[in-house]
Amino acid sequence: MTSTTKEIVWLRWLLVDMRVSLSHLTPMYCDNRSSIQIAHNSIFHERTKHIEIDCHLTRHHLKHDTITFPFVCSSLQIADFFTKSHSISRFRFLVGKLSMLVAATS
Asked: Where would one find the signal peptide in this protein (predicted)?
């Protein structure tokens, strides 16, 4: 999450430098409720100590309205298209979600 937060912040700064108006928060879709809760919760527990440092940056940008963490169930996680192998039907479903079209053949 922290590396993605850094990328989002950098891209937002780049767009501002290019004079692009940013009127919305950037959603970072997540299919892990525990990660979302850790990002929102400023109280750490014994089991989350090792990730405390990484969470500060993400929590800062969450608190200052740069990013949001909408939950998306795993079956609708479009990023899986790039990271996992799929059945033909699942592949077609994800391609449809990406709004990809078949290139015309000559």
From this structure: 1-23
